[in-house]
Amino acid sequence: MTSTSTSRPVGELLRQWRERRRMSQMDLAIQADISTRHLSFVETGRSRPSREMILHLAEELELPLRERNHLLLAGGFAPVFAETPLNSPEMTSVREAIGQVLGGHQPYPAVVVDQRWNLVDRNPATGLLLRGVAPELLEPPVNVLRLSLHPKGIAHRILNLGEWRAHLLHRLRRQISLTADPELTELWRELDGYPCDQPEPEIGTGQGQIVIPLRLRRGYRELVFFSTMTTFGTPLDITVAELAIEAYFPANPETAAYLQHQHHPD
């Protein structure tokens, strides 16, 4: 949908997104406070929506900013959301915020990724996770999901690989359903084809678990982490909207003590 959206009528694209969100015309019309008849006319091309109507419907459908621009182009309007390079002067405050989060999370690992899980930045503590990874997987652009599940990546050190793999693939499938990004679909197919000699449980079936942990072998030790995802609030730039910070926290005192010791060996 992403790569061909501007060659299709805006009404057809809106209908496809509505169906992807599993909404009826009535559902969307009520939510957007317009008549079902008007929405039907927009979707069939009998009525040409204004710029404001396209943005209004896109907001109600919770579309990514990139897709809102595609809808505007399909409707004959100029895009309104910029995609500013992260290294540009206008993004200084964003870079500083990222640096503060990454630095403040030491001695625990944290990475910054874009929408397609390509590595944008990381803190030094992630070096602990990357030991033993094949050099070719660290050649830019580094994809952190590929790095996690590839047999020459971190996978051989993940003690609960089946559980962690099921979690990552489930999260990726959900993202695909929200964004319709064909590159993410290709990534999912690649990752799904990687070998795994452990059972992959259904998400949500872990008895007594609060979160799905990452159990990592480090020599004779087992390091256990859980992670959080942080995004920028109310972004109006595509680059910022597609950034996320994944921060790993120790899930037990032993892991915390080991990371603290690695950070301050004396």
List keywords for this structure.
disordered N terminus; five-stranded antiparallel β-sheet; alpha+beta; 2 domains; 266 residues; Beta-Lactamase; 434 Repressor (Amino-terminal Domain); 12 helices
Outline the biggest β-sheet.
Answer: 5 strands, antiparallel
N-to-C terminal Cα separation, in Å?
55 Å
Shape: elongated
Give the proportion of residues in helices. Answer: 40-55%
* Tally of individual helices: 12
Structural class determined from secondary elements? alpha+beta
Mean pLDDT: 92
List low-confidence stretches.
1-5
Strand order of the largest sheet: 2-1-5-4-3
The rounded Rg comes to 22 Å
CATH architectural type of the largest domain: 2-Layer Sandwich
The number of distinct β-strands equals 5
CATH overall fold name of the largest domain: Beta-Lactamase
Give, in order, the helices and strands. Answer: HHHHHHEEHHHHEEHEH
Strand content: 5-15%
User: What is the CATH first-level class name of the largest domain?
Assistant: Alpha Beta
Can you tell me the number of structural domains? Answer: 2
Domain HTH cro/C1-type: 14-68
Protein name: Helix-turn-helix domain-containing protein
Pfam families: HTH_31, MLTR_LBD
Protein described:
InterPro entries: Cro/C1-type_HTH, Lambda_DNA-bd_dom_sf, MLTR_LBD. By secondary structure, the protein is α+β, with helices and mostly antiparallel strands. It has two domains: 5-74, Orthogonal Bundle (434 Repressor (Amino-terminal Domain)); 89-263, Beta-Lactamase (2-Layer Sandwich), CATH 3.30.450. The chain is built from twelve helices and five strands. Strands 2-1-5-4-3 form a five-stranded antiparallel beta sheet. The longest helix is centred in the middle third of the chain and has 19 residues, at 161-179. The chain is elongated, with a radius of gyration of 22 Å.
